[in-house]
Specification:
Blueprint (H helix, E strand, L loop, with lengths): L2 E7 L8 H15 L4 E6 L5 H6 L3 H4 L9 H8 L7 H6 L10 E2 L11 E4 L13 H16 L5 E6 L8 H9 L2 E7 L2 H19 L6 E10 L1 E3 L3 E3 L2 E3 L2 E2 L1 H20 L11 H8 E5 L3 H10 L3 H11 L3 E6 L2 E6 H27 L1
Parallel strand pairs: 1-5, 1-6, 2-4, 2-5, 6-7, 7-12
Antiparallel strand pairs: 3-4, 8-11, 9-10, 13-14
Helix pairs in contact: 1-13, 6-7, 8-9, 12-13
């Protein structure tokens, strides 16, 4: 059965929301597509995504260490000189899923069809990978999934490295489309422009084929919970005026980049308005009393919403260590709606990009 698609959450800046989106979108996708198996590769060093998927930092600390560092074992196996890279790559017994765990076996809040190749077991010392070796590793992982009897969807999470690390380069080699979150400010855009230039250069040299599916303007402040239209893009909330002004300025710069870096964006757009509609998304600042317990307890928004609906209650209470969180149903539903809208755009744009 085919590997349906592969997407990397990438940004050469830390704390832009890559891991949050990886956690929430992979969980929601798996919940929505029960006929498909979802593989998440945590290619970051500290393994924040791994810890969230396995139930949060506190719960993960109680699990056996062997559950962590799967991605390191996978790639270190390829580097063992006594067996040789070629024998590892083309061994008839190689199965990338031997290095994955079914997450629901350790955290029942996650859909049963989501699998993880974990990170976070120990600090890694990355050796530069020759381009040929990296291509071969990526090709073998892809062909292993292609040869499975199951339909697979791949998501990769990466570190916010200023220049792409060897592990991030593997993510680019595995994924032909990237989702790039960043804060809505000129400084983050300035650094992201550097990243886009690096990606374009790597594409021009034939080292990767990754294109940017869309940019997520993250942590945008909300003025009111009312839909608004922004240059043909329907937003589920109304941002503050200053955020709208910054959004206008940043999108103008981003569109200019897309025109100059030919082929980098999946949807470059014939006009600025076309580009904004197809290649950008706006995500509001999510409520802490929903986001924090979700991350700390390894409880995806989709499961949180399912439990709320099943309870018939108007609020939920979450206990995370010594901290207690209370959230009303409308707050939880607003957060879930934000992710759902982003996921819907992701699926629609991915399909259009694949057809193109």
């Amino acid at each position: 059965m085919p590997l349906q698609s592969a997407h990397v959450f990438a940004s050469h800046i830390g704390h832009t929301g890559k891991t949050t989106l990886s956690f929430q979108m992979s969980s929601y996708y798996a919940s929505k597509h029960s006929d498909c198996s979802v593989l998440v590769m945590d290619l970051s060093e500290e393994g924040d995504l791994t810890k969230r998927l396995l139930g949060g930092v506190a719960a993960a600390s109680q699990l056996t260490e062997s559950l962590f560092g799967g991605v390191f074992r996978l790639l270190s196996a390829a580097d063992k000189r006594e067996t040789g890279l070629t024998s590892w790559l083309w061994s008839s017994t190689f199965n990338v899923l031997d290095h994955a765990v079914r997450v629901a076996d350790h955290n029942p809040a996650v859909p049963p069809n989501l699998f993880l190749i974990s990170s976070g077991s120990w600090p890694r010392h990355e050796k530069p990978l020759e381009d040929e070796a990296r291509r071969a590793i990526c090709s073998r992982i892809q062909s292993s999934l292609e040869g499975s009897s199951t339909n697979w969807k791949l998501f990769c999470d990466t570190d916010g490295d200023r220049r792409p690390s060897p592990f991030t380069m593997i993510a680019y080699g595995l994924c032909n489309q990237a989702i790039v979150p960043l804060h809505l400010n000129q400084a983050d855009l300035d650094r992201t422009e550097t990243m886009l230039g690096v990606l374009h250069d790597l594409r021009s040299r034939g080292e990767i084929q990754t294109q940017v599916l869309f940019i997520v303007w993250n942590f945008v402040k909300c003025l009111k919970d009312e839909e608004c239209e922004y240059k043909g893009l329907m937003l589920p909330f109304t941002p503050t005026k200053v955020c709208m002004d910054i959004l206008n300025s940043c999108n103008k710069r981003l569109f200019k980049n897309a025109q100059e870096l030919e082929g980098l964006f999946v949807h470059s757009g014939a006009s600025e308005e076309d580009f904004i509609q197809s290649s950008t998304a706006v995500l509001r600042q999510l409520a802490d009393n929903v986001l924090k317990p979700s991350e700390e307890l390894g409880l995806p928004f989709v499961e949180m919403t399912n439990r709320l609906t099943a309870s018939g209650k108007k609020s939920m209470k979450f206990q995370s260590g010594e901290v207690s969180y209370d959230a009303k149903s409308d707050t939880i539903e607003t957060v879930m709606s934000s992710i759902k809208i982003l996921e819907d755009k992701f699926e629609a744009m991915s399909l259009v990009g694949r057809d193109a």
